[in-house]
Amino acid sequence: MIIKYITQGRCPNCYQGYIFKEPVLLSLSLGQIHDRCLVCNYNLKKEPGYYWGAMYASYGLGLLEMLLTYLACRIMGSGTFDWVNLWAMCLVVLVLSLFNFKMARVIWLYIFP
């Protein structure tokens, strides 16, 4: 159930307010975080540098996407490792980079409230 709130970008305190000012999934901007939750007044901007740790979550998301892309290439009949797999993995990570940026911040906020 908590995965639903993470993917929607909901507040980790009340699960009703939103963390970002625009949708997490279908937005082409980097996303601006509200200073406080509009419902429960939870502080979403903790301290300077708080979200630097979200790089670890972003790295994990990128690895997961690359692994799933590699497995999809293998299932579709590509070789063990070739340039097609590499380009497909790079393309997927590049296309999902804005999503990863926002989701990493949401995940970091849920791990360390």
First-last Cα distance? 18 Å
Q: Strand-and-helix sequence, N→C?
A: HHHH
Percent strand: under 5%
Mean pLDDT: 89
How many DSSP-defined strands?
0
Low-confidence stretches: none
Rg: 16 Å
Largest sheet: none
Number of helices: 4
Fraction of residues in helices? 40-55%
Which features does this protein show?
mainly alpha, 4 helices, 113 residues
Task: Characterise the protein shown here.
With 113 residues, this protein is mostly helical. The protein has one domain. It has 4 helices and no strands. Helix 2 packs across helix 3 (83-95) and helix 2 (54-75) packs across helix 4 (97-111). The longest helix has 22 residues, at 54-75. It is elongated and about 50 Å long.
List strands and helices in order, with pairings.
Elements: H1 2-8, H2 54-75, H3 83-95, H4 97-111
Helix pairs in contact: 2-3, 2-4
Short overview:
This protein is mostly helical and 113 residues long. It is built from four helices and no strands. Helix 2 packs across helix 3 (83-95).
